[in-house]
Amino acid sequence: MCKTLASLLQPSLLLSKLATVTRCLHGSPALEGKIKFIKQGIDINKYTLRPLRLIKSGGRGYDGRIWTHGVGGGHRQNYRMVDFKRVGPKEGDPLVEKVLSVRYDPCRSADIAVVAGGEHKRYILASQNMKTGDLIKTSGKLTRMAVRAAEGDAHPVGSLPLGTIVHNVEIFPGEGGKFARAAGTSAQLMRKVDERCILRLPSKREISVSQECMVTVGRVSNIDHNKKPIGKAGRSRWLGIRPQSGLWHRKTGYNGRKIKAAKPVKVYAKKPSKKPLRHTFTV
């Protein structure tokens, strides 16, 4: 009898043990998208012009689950390390770089340019009229009088005159450009309030950033990117876009025209706190 009860109680005890098992997944927002290179033994902190092999994720995250639907397949691509940080001297003459070539990048809609200054070469986003042989300047000096910047030059947003068209906009000084990086996009400097600058994004949303944030003058290259017809379903598969389900989907309030009041200015004054590196799940 005791053996029978023991045999009956063992599965329940096993289930109770399994119920308290925790699974820890280590993931950092700063490393999302870079794990695929780290697993290949590539030092992501060492800059290189060599195209890196890009392993497709199929829309899956680090936990193996689908994060983004409609992604998968596509032509093999190589990743280029594009430098979104335009860092220049805050005193003295600006950094002058020469455009060696303007190239196609399969990992983004905009074109990229190879620039060289001193003993260093790097990839940057190409502006609309950038061509081989151009000289571009990068200055970190914040001036009282508005500077007369040419297309492709990078300056603190507080040094530019009102109405300037810019791209590769920083939201925190020294972190690199975050906004207006896609093909043909740009932001516009609307007004200055004390030590803050208000810019209007392509979505018509206005943001407030520090006057020390770096921006690049001009519009991003490849402005006719969205006007090229796909032509056939197969080309979408080449681009890694999977088709939607053939089932009928009822339209909701997400579809159709919307008339909404303008959103308030979004202020980027304080960096958000870092998320934890460990995610614990209880089964």
Automatic annotation (TrEMBL):
Cellular component GO terms held in the UniProt record: mitochondrial large ribosomal subunit
Matching SUPFAM superfamilies: Nucleic acid-binding proteins, Translation proteins SH3-like domain
Domain annotation Large ribosomal subunit protein uL2 RNA-binding: ranges: 59-138
GO BP, sorted A to Z: mitochondrial translation
InterPro entries: NA-bd_OB-fold, Rib_uL2_dom2, Ribosomal_uL2, Ribosomal_uL2_C, Ribosomal_uL2_RNA-bd_dom, Translation_prot_SH3-like_sf
Record's signal peptide: 1-24
Residue ranges occupied by any Large ribosomal subunit protein uL2 C-terminal domain in the UniProt entry: 149-271
Gene Ontology molecular function, alphabetical: RNA binding; structural constituent of ribosome
Sorted UniProt keywords: Ribonucleoprotein, Ribosomal protein, Signal
Similarity field: Belongs to the universal ribosomal protein uL2 family.
PANTHER family attached to this UniProt entry: LARGE RIBOSOMAL SUBUNIT PROTEIN UL2M (PTHR13691:SF73), RIBOSOMAL PROTEIN L2 (PTHR13691)
Protein name according to UniProt: Uncharacterized protein
Lineage: Eukaryota, Metazoa, Spiralia, Lophotrochozoa, Mollusca
